[in-house]
Structure formats: C-alpha cells, structure tokens
Amino acid sequence: MNRPRIALLSNPKSTGNIAQLSRIRDYCAEHPDIFHYEVERAEQIGDALRTIARVRPKILIINGGDGTVQAALTEIHNGRHFGDEAPPVAVLPNGKTNLIALDLGAQGDPVLALERLVTLAQFDLSPHIVARELIALRCHPTARPVIGMFLGGAGLADTMLYCRNKIYPLGLPNGVSHALTAVALLIRMFLRLQSRFLPPKPTPLQVSVRRDGRISGRFALLAVTTLEKMLLASEVKGTGTGRLKLLAVEERPFSLLKAFAASLAGKLGASTMQGVHFEESDEISIEGENTNLILDGEMFSAQIGHPIVLKPAQPLSFVRLAA
Length: 323
Hints:
The chain has helices at 17-29, 45-55, 66-79, 99-103, 110-120, 155-167, 174-191, 253-264; strands spanning 6-10, 34-38, 59-63, 89-91, 129-138, 146-148, 150-153, 205-209, 213-217, 219-225, 244-250, 276-281, 284-288, 291-295, 298-302, 308-319. It is α+β, with helices and mostly antiparallel strands and 323 residues long.
C-alpha cells in the first residue's frame, strides 16, 4: 500500500533551524514519503508551494517561525496553488515566539513533532483537523492582503521590537529574553523612566471597530487575533459577535495588571474592566502616528489618514497535535 505523501516546507534561516535543521534533514532522508522543500527567502515560497501542489500532499508541514508561517498562509490564500482543496497545515515548534505552533499544540522537539505528524498521516486525520479563521491585513483598499493569525500593535509591537533588537542579540535563552523584556517594560511603566535601554513609550493611536465605534489613546498592549488563545495562553470569553478578537490595554500600570490577572484567571473578556477593552468584530481599522504593527513577524506602520484595515480571511484547516 502506498504511504500518503507529506510536504515539509523549511526555512533554514529561521532561528530554531540553525540548531535543528540537520536533524530534520536526516529524518527526511530516512523517510522518502516526505517531500522536503527548503527556501531561504519569503519570495521563494510561491514557487515552493507551486511545486508542492504537484505532489498533492496529505499534510503541508511548515518548519519555521511565525513569519515563515505567515508568508506561507499569504501565498496559499492569494496564489491558490491548491485550488479549493488546500491540504491541512501543520506547524513544527520553531523560531522565537511560535504563537501559531503553540495554538496548535506543537511544543518541544521539532523532530519529535514531525515524527508524530508522519504517524498521524497514515490514518484518518479528521480527529486532529481544526478550522482556523485568518486575518487579512490591507495597507490600501486595492492592495493584496497579507494573511496571518496574530497582530500586535502599540506598546506590544514596540516591546516585541525591543526584544528582537536589544535582547535577542545577547544570545540568552528565549525564556530569559522574554523575562528580561517584561521586567524592562514594567520598570518603564511603573517608574515612568525613559531610556534607550528600555522599551519606548507607545504613540497615540485610534482603533475603529465597526460594531462599537472608536477607541483611542496610548495602549501598552494592542492585540488582534483569530487564535483560540490570546496572550499568556489564556482563552478569551468572547460573545461571538465577530471573528476578530481585539484586546487593547491602556498605558497605565494597573490596567495592565488587571488584564494580566484576568488572563491568568481565564476571565479576560468576561466582564468590563476600566482601561481594558475587549471587542469582537469583522472589520477593524487602526491608524496612528507612525504606529508599529506586527502581523506574525512582519512589521507594518499605520499612519494618520492611512489606516491599516483588518478583516477575516477564508478559514483554513490545520492539524492540531494537542488532544
């Protein structure tokens, strides 16, 4: 009996692949049913998926960070290389943040995750298939949408960039890097300090939610996602009034602490809290004074009068490893 084909798309330049790619290559060499395609630049992903579509894989596995996953999802959506029957997507734990892999239950050793996916592909995948809504981001009404799952903005984006540019180069483990970043953020907020050694103060921005009007101000945290879990691996109790979940926390220490406590208790979005805004919508626009936005690793800039618009994209099937 022929074994089902499995396609693996790898980005060798992803941070996690620096240490793990040789092991993944060795594993693929021992399993000829895996069609392994490596890219070094995002521009190559379109050609990669065009080639992979000819293999007609049962699963498309992406081996890279959130930026690699985002580029692949964008190409699947816009390029339509698989027509109306795109294979379910699986994500190996890799990169620095891996919010998408975490949401899909992929944690730990990427080779072990790959091994499990190969095993699952030999049987009925339906118990492990989940549909995920996607975000379509447009900088201009006629622009080609960029597709992703998690957008960070305002102070969150500035803090992510601070971690990427100031902390990661120190070569520390990811957990230590993220802890140092959190400490630096709290020092700036609670002590009201400004220094090039600390995350910058967020710029003002305006967020328009079609159902509920507009919120504006300085936000320590702005997140828009379709993932089941927001930050801190906390599920948000939504109302089902829109497919995009928006969380905005004002630039005040106690607002951030309230949001943190509600997230840990699993009550984020369950009730109204001063300084904490949770909304659900099918269209969100964001504009500000050179406000940074990061969609799954790719940075965008929102300007006054030139908003970035977010809408739901066509859902895609994913393989969830967690029970």
